[in-house]
Design a protein that fits this description.
The protein is α+β, with helices and mostly antiparallel strands and 84 residues long. It contains three helices and three strands; from the N terminus they run αβαββα. Strands 1-2-3 form a three-stranded antiparallel β-sheet. A hairpin with a 4-residue loop joins β2 and β3. The longest helix has 14 residues. It is globular, with a radius of gyration of 13 Å.
């Protein structure tokens, strides 16, 4: 994602998912990606937007293309048709 111009950071801490999700919401992080053993094996991610939309099993390439489309149009919201 960095190579494609998308700003990312990883939280590899041992805190529970609920706490990490809450922190990301408070910090207004646009997308939270969860990569567990299943997602890693499938080359996919589970996506959660700050608006609360959840989608599991999204191919990494698909997520990157959707995100780049949002960046390209400088969308004010994250849950428009481009993402869904």
């Amino acid at each position: 994602m960095l190579d494609r111009g998308i700003r990312v950071s990883a939280d590899l801490g041992s805190e529970r998912n609920e706490r990490q999700n809450r922190w990301a919401q408070l910090m207004k992080v646009p997308y939270m990606l969860v990569v567990g053993a299943r997602e890693s094996a499938d080359s996919s991610v589970s996506v959660r937007t700050r608006e609360g939309i959840r989608e599991e099993g999204v191919a990494v390439d698909t997520f990157i293309e959707r995100t780049l489309a949002k960046i390209g149009e400088r969308a004010a919201t994250l849950d428009e048709e481009v993402y869904l």
